[in-house]
Amino acid sequence: MLIIWRLLYLTICANFLGYALICIANSSEGERFEAMQRVHRKFLGQRMTFPQFGGSITFMTAFGSPPLSTKGKAICVDSINELFEAIEKAEPNTTILIADGYYHLPRRIEIRKDGITLRSESGRREKVILDGGKHQLGELIAVTGCSDVTIADLTIQNVRWNAIKLNTDTGVHRVTIYNCIIRNVWQRGVKGVRVPPNILRPTGCRIQYCLFVNDRPKTFDDDPTDNPQTFNGNYIGGIDVMFAQGWVISDNVFVGIQGRTREGRGAIFLWHDSRNCVVERNIIIDCDVGIVLGNSWKPPDIEVHCNRIIVRNNFVVRCPESGIVADYTKDCLIAHNTIHDPTNRLGRLIRLVHDNDGLRVINNLLSGPPIKNESSSKMVLFNNLVMPDYSHTFVNANRGNLRLNTNAIDAIDKAEPLPEVRDDIDGKPRGSKPDIGAHEFR
User: What is the value of pTM for the model shown?
Assistant: First the structure.
């Protein structure tokens, strides 16, 4: 009985997501943001009571973020001056709680001490808005020369370049970015820079349960440095990190990260010798590029861009430049992802290019063109289901909900079990006969 009620709840979640996303597509910019807010807030660790099995259970879906606990000394602030003073004077391992409100920041927030937590007091990320638009800030939060920093439960918006800049060339480790809205940022939502050889690579960071959303495609006015002589208005992405070590990027939603001519960068982009990271349970809708491991430009001191990265259980919907890309990788795994874009203009739902030794591409569901393999490396491409248009097998493909329905007979129970993929996008365990793609039907 417990299993039945869990499945019933997940079905309700799926239908809500589909309804909300179609509202977003047909709304104005302001309405679109509010609708996306409702999608991503609806099931944030929500505790539901079901008398049928005698208690309450916290249901987790791709949108569920368990609340963080407060650590160390807590300081409450309710003005811009108090906020900057608290950050400047805070001792290590201090939590700064920001009261609900709209904060037009006059300059970048600088975090330079270990163990600092910056979050909303209420825990409701839509209630604390840190805005860089009024003062045309290039960056809104910077983390420099410190570790164990947490940024959580905030909205960060209207920034020309980087919403959260991790100055990883100064020794930055174990940063957590959690349950934030990153909105209308015109270069990168989260940026991690190149690391020199004498500095330890950024290790153990997490980006989870965040919403990355832009109300419209980028224009020249949004970023004067991105012009016809540079990137033609297309220098834009979601997460862009170099030299990542042991990162987890999971349970995030990316919507509308688009360049001026729809030739932007990845919603998730790992490169420059990134190692041992996991990218899972993300939903990417109407961005120019989905998930990118590597880049066609590789500096001489970098052997490969990505080593032992796992990309699993993600939904990628209508990303015209590419859905998932592997470009100069080694021993990576791309498994159990569902990618839908039947009319993809470049035929790149999954693109493999340049050297990708040891790459495994297994149990992925492609609704659209087949894998585009431009690599001569020794790879394993196995048991990937490719259908020209598999829309009728999804709960609602047009709305971005790629959970399977009863029509998905070619996918259900047809995957090969993988030790690296033991559950699905909703956290449901996969049995001895798993389904192809990100969602487990039963």
Answer: 0.88
